């Protein structure tokens, strides 16, 4: 995050979600969907992950400490013909892949086409201050605050920080950077003193 917030313009964080987020639900007391099994569990976990992308986008876009330093938006790339389904074990989904295979180039985007909205959000000059938004086909669709529960987004953010121990890691990295900077400064001073004595 430090690398994204130190530039002349706000850094840009882009989350690739999916329209499938609409089917997602998040239970912070059972994030692993332990009450489900098999294909149903895998499907619900996928939906949850896509909703999590939207929740993360919304929460980060409202963080006061990152205001004017970083933007965060998300997007639906559409149905893209990639090899993402090569290990699918969901019968109906796997069957549909083969049924539509002869027509895939007519009804699905190429990887290049699927990447366009990501590229647009990363490079479009007019979006330099746009944050907390959901895009599809290089077009604004909605503010994330209008399509998700902001309270849940904040709670999910806090839980994620705790689960990942990010605060502790950040403090450790900061301490390491301070120590490294101090050592470099001391080395430079010592070198200058040695050069001065040599003269």
What does this entry show, briefly?
This protein has 199 residues and is an alpha/beta fold.
Q: Number of helical segments?
A: 8
CATH-derived topology of the largest domain: Rossmann fold
Named CATH architecture of the largest domain? 3-Layer(aba) Sandwich
Order of helices and strands: HEHEHHHHEEHH
CATH class label of the largest domain: Alpha Beta
Unreliable segments of 5+ consecutive residues: none
Rounded mean pLDDT score: 84
**Helical amount:** 40-55%
| Alpha-carbon distance between the two ends | 44 Å
Q: How does the major sheet shape up?
A: 4 strands, mixed
Strands, count: 4
Compute the CA-based radius of gyration.
23 Å
Q: How many structural domains can be distinguished in the coordinates?
A: 2
Strand order of the largest sheet: 1-2-3-4
Shape: elongated
Supply the CATH superfamily name of the largest domain: NAD(P)-binding Rossmann-like Domain
Structural class: alpha/beta
Overview of the molecule:
The protein has 199 residues and is α/β, with parallel strands linked by helices. The chain has eight helices and four strands, in the order αβαβααααββαα. A four-stranded mixed sheet has the order 1-2-3-4, with helices on both faces. The longest helix has 33 residues, at 166-198. It is elongated. The two termini are 44 Å apart. The model has no long low-confidence stretch (mean pLDDT 84).
């Amino acid at each position: 995050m430090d690398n994204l917030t130190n530039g002349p313009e706000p850094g840009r964080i882009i989350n690739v979600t999916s329209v499938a987020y609409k089917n997602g639900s998040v239970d912070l007391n059972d994030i692993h969907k332990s009450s489900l099994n098999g294909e149903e569990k895998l499907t619900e976990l996928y939906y949850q992950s896509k909703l999590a992308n939207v929740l993360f986008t919304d929460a980060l876009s409202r963080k006061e400490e990152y205001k004017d330093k970083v933007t965060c938006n998300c997007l639906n790339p559409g149905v893209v013909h990639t090899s993402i389904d090569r290990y699918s074990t969901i019968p109906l989904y796997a069957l549909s892949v083969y049924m539509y295979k002869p027509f895939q180039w007519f009804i699905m985007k190429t990887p290049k086409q699927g990447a366009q909205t990501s590229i647009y959000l990363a490079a479009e000059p007019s979006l330099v201050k746009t944050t907390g938004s959901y895009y599809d086909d290089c077009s604004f669709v909605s503010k994330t605050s209008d399509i998700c529960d902001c309270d849940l987004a904040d709670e999910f953010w806090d839980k994620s920080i705790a689960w990942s121990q990010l605060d502790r890691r950040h403090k450790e990295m900061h301490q390491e950077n301070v120590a490294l900077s101090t050592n470099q400064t001391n080395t430079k001073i010592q070198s200058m003193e040695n050069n001065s004595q040599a003269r």
